[in-house]
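seq as requested:
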Amino acid sequence: MLNNICITAKINPDLDGVACAFGYADLLSKQHIKAEPCVFGIPQSEVQYFIKEQNILINISDDNNIFSQWDKFILVDASSMKGMPHVVKSELVEEVIDHRVSEPEKEFPNAKIQNELVGAAATLIVERFMKANILPEYKSAQLLYGAIFHNTLNFITANSTERDKKATQFLELNFGLSRSLIQSMFDYASKEIIDNLHDAIINDAKQFKGFNFYQLVMSNVEYKKLEKTISKIIVQEDTKYPCQWSILNVVDVNKKVSYLYVPSQIGQTIVSQNLECKFIDSWANIPAALRKEIMPKIDL
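struct tokens:
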């Protein structure tokens, strides 16, 4: 047996998944347990900020190697096999750490599961550091700090909790981290999204029964200027992954608004009825919310 542990989120992970993988590997290392943080696919724009502006080295793991070097897996910011790297085998998953409504025990009968409804899975990792009276490495702290703010949109989402706030306070107290890092992250991510709009949309696309759900998280976005390009990209993607309707959630973290783009009438009817919003020229506004908050209301 290899006895090697891979800690991973889903393919094309957001900052919460990356931060949890690196943070938890850091904690286990300090507890004399060897585990490797693994990132598969293309990390999203907010992760690129930490790679390029904060000089945090994040290597991309190979998902095409049929001879896996790992014989155990820990899933973070994830609780199902949907979207998982090919190397992950459900029967070899020994632990699941997530923060959403789901039933991971059905897919991972051999796993120890922590699935608690906080704003970010990163909060659960920080709490483990706090409970163990261990400090993470500075770069792990940066990633975890950014992940909590990104996943709660600066604590304005409905799923934000006091636990999330206490976790960031712990990191601020011990590492001198500040909100300026967070604004820089959102600003950088917004520029990356605009410069690479096609990749930003498709790399975070999710397919559900009957519809496709796309999402962009930005700051001070002028979404109308992007409409023609957005429409073209979504038409192309909906052709690749046929669906009855599709939705794009453009979250403006500074304006605290979600701009919803739904081109089809059937989709507009479903969304307007369940989110109590009105569409004009295929766009509607709601208070800022992430996909995971919107999904339970429209996935009928």
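The chain has eleven helices and ten strands.
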